[in-house]
Amino acid sequence: xxxxxxxxxxxxxxxxxxxxxxxxxxxxxxxxxxxxxxxxxxxxxxxxxxxxxxxxxxxxxxxxxxxxxxxxxxxxxxxxxxxxxxxxxxxxxxxxxxxxxxxxxxxxxxxxxxxxxxxxxxxxxxxxxxxxxxxxxxxxxxxxxxxxxxxxxxxxxxxxxxxxxxxxxxxxxxxxxxxxxxxxxxxx
Length: 188
Prior knowledge:
- This protein is α/β, with parallel strands linked by helices.
- The chain has helices spanning 40-52, 61-84, 88-100, 114-117, 178-187; strands at residues 4-11, 14-21, 27-28, 32-33, 105-110, 125-126, 131-132, 139-143.
- The protein has a single domain (4-143), classed as Nucleotidyltransferase, domain 5 (2-Layer Sandwich).
- It is built from 5 helices and 8 strands, in the order ββββαααβαβββα.
- Strands 1, 2, 3, 4, 5 and 8 form a 6-stranded mixed beta sheet that branches. A two-stranded antiparallel ribbon has the order 6-7.
- A hairpin with a 2-residue loop joins strand 1 and strand 2 (14-21).
- 16% of the residues are buried.
- The mean pLDDT is 84.
């Protein structure tokens, strides 16, 4: 489970990076102008590589894939520059995350623009560390907005407690009887 969080928040034509260490209040870097880092051809090539090449890796496909593989690092560096080298605070936040261990940090991307959420954030490449960040991070997630979706719930009954009990029985009839496991809970 991640202790720390780097959050990229996109609004309009700007992004803002924030850093939260443990339960401390998040700290915010300055907002910077967001410019889409990839042209349409790069996105088309990446989609082909990830979605179609694996289904049919024959003929000219390996040659095309090799060209795209050479571009992955530079695309990741462009994305890294946009987010973590956009301001002094952003650099500081990334250094803090690295110092605490990226394996203890989750990266969260928040936006109301699906094209921003659809960017290949997994390609983030740190030139200083010479590594893609995604395998090192504790997790990576995308969210449409910071506002939680709230559904109206009817008032819960106050006179009873409902419990859903799920019991794994991988060996079917050879497992311990269902009642043997459930009875002590019901008696309590």
